[in-house]
């Protein structure tokens, strides 16, 4: 019975045991008095994850491991967020629950509706509308005008635009012969992409602009026949990056704090230096949950959640998080290479690249390998917009992991 419970053939059972162990650790190490709310919230999360895996195995014949990998990332994130701020931890459980619902909805919608590769104009128009709404009604947070606030709720339209952007590029390259009859299609898509990035520059959301650029660059590298356009793209990006240093003050500050944060440790460099102190303080095995000082780092529950994990759970756990993202991206690329439908092949490649680039940018930023950008770590950082958008992307990736009837998709589209 016990061997069956922890069998690799049913990995969700083993993960549930690990979740329960993590919950017990959080319950016992909480710096405040342990309460039943912690226990009930944690058990609810474990039940939601188990039931979701149980349902997924029965409704989808595709890759079941990408969802399992994500649930491991979620569990680590919630444990750390709850330890930092119990109220935020409880809210994150709600966002995860909504995200899982969004995962199944996106899976069912994308799988049962055909013609996704025909709506390139729709993706572009909706994206432009969201950009314009953000510029007009958006709220500036952290130097970037990228939040829409309605009553008590706020969200980032750019999180949804990331997925529309991938669909936009995939639609073009899936129908490249149609859009490139005049041999200028590659230049048109390049201009369209830089319109997307231009709006992000207007919002001063340069971290997201970097993600958009990197996604387009890797897809362009694989599918663009005119190799000269790739060189043009790199040159334009270099010019834009250098220009942003002189145009935007917060970009200049982030570059300065990246080069030498120790000279600015009392003000501008405080955040990154505290991140480095936290990682160093954790060592290989960590101080233990509840025994570190992640609250010394500003915005630790969003941009610097990885530093908090390394401090209290150790560098080994930080490496494990990196490995989980590597496995997630690897399986995403494997899905893309195995998919016969070109549109979903490109979409899977783009979504996998999205997860990989966001994780790399965060990892690189908090250890001072690259300048900070202010984006979230998918499935781990606190936040509703990022969590829901990431789960929608995962649901689309789940569809791409299945064998699709190409003839039926083309006929119905």
Q: What is the number of strand segments?
A: 3
How many domains? The number is 1
State the share of residues found in helices, binned by percent: over 70%
Low-confidence segments: 406-413
User: Biggest sheet, strands in spatial order?
Assistant: 1-2-3
Largest sheet: 3 strands, antiparallel
Task: Provide mean pLDDT, rounded.
Answer: 84
Q: What integer value in Å does the Rg equal?
A: 22 Å
Explain this structure.
With 413 residues, the protein is mostly helical. It is 72% helix and 3% strand. It has one domain (116-412). The protein is built from 18 helices and three strands. A three-stranded antiparallel β-sheet has the order 1-2-3, with helices on one face. It is globular, with a radius of gyration of 22 Å. Residues 406-413 have low confidence and may be disordered.
Features of this protein?
18 helices, mainly alpha, three-stranded antiparallel β-sheet, disordered C terminus, 413 residues
Question: Can you summarize this structure?
Answer:
With 413 residues, this protein is mostly helical.
């Amino acid at each position: 019975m016990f061997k069956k419970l922890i069998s690799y053939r049913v990995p969700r059972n083993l993960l549930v045991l690990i979740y329960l162990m993590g919950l017990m650790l959080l319950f016992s190490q909480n710096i405040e008095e342990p309460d039943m709310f912690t226990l009930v919230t944690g058990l609810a999360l474990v039940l939601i994850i188990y039931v979701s895996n149980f349902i997924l195995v029965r409704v989808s014949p595709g890759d079941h491991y990408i969802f399992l990998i994500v649930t491991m990332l979620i569990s680590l994130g919630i444990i750390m967020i709850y330890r930092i701020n119990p109220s935020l931890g409880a809210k994150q459980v709600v966002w995860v629950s909504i995200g899982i619902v969004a995962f199944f909805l996106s899976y069912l919608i994308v799988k049962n509706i055909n013609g996704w590769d025909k709506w390139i104009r729709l993706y572009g128009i909706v994206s432009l509308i969201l950009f314009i709404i953000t510029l007009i009604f958006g709220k500036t947070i952290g130097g970037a005008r990228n939040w829409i606030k309605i009553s008590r709720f706020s969200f980032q339209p750019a999180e949804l635009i990331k997925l529309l952007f991938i669909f936009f590029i995939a639609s073009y390259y899936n129908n490249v012969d149609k859009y490139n009859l005049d041999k200028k299609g590659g230049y048109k898509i390049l201009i369209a992409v830089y319109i997307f990035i231009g709006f992000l520059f207007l919002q001063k959301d340069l971290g997201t602009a970097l993600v958009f650029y990197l996604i387009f660059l890797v897809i362009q590298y694989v599918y663009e026949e005119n190799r000269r356009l790739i060189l043009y793209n790199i040159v334009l990006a270099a010019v834009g990056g250098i220009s942003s240093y002189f145009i935007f003050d917060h970009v200049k500050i982030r570059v300065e704090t990246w080069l030498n944060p120790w000279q600015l440790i009392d003000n501008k460099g405080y955040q990154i230096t505290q991140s480095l102190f936290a990682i160093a303080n954790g060592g290989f095995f960590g101080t233990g949950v509840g025994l570190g000082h992640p609250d010394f780092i500003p915005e630790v529950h969003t941009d610097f959640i990885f530093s908090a994990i390394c401090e209290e759970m150790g560098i080994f756990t930080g490496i494990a998080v990196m490995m989980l993202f590597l496995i997630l991206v690897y399986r995403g690329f494997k899905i893309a290479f195995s998919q016969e439908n070109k549109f979903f092949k490109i979409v899977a490649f783009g979504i996998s690249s999205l997860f990989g680039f966001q994780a790399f940018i965060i990892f690189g930023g908090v250890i001072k390998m690259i300048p900070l950008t202010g984006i979230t770590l998918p499935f781990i950082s606190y936040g509703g917009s990022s969590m829901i958008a990431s789960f929608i992307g995962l649901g689309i990736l789940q569809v791409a992991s299945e064998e699709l009837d190409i003839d039926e998709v083309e006929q119905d589209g």
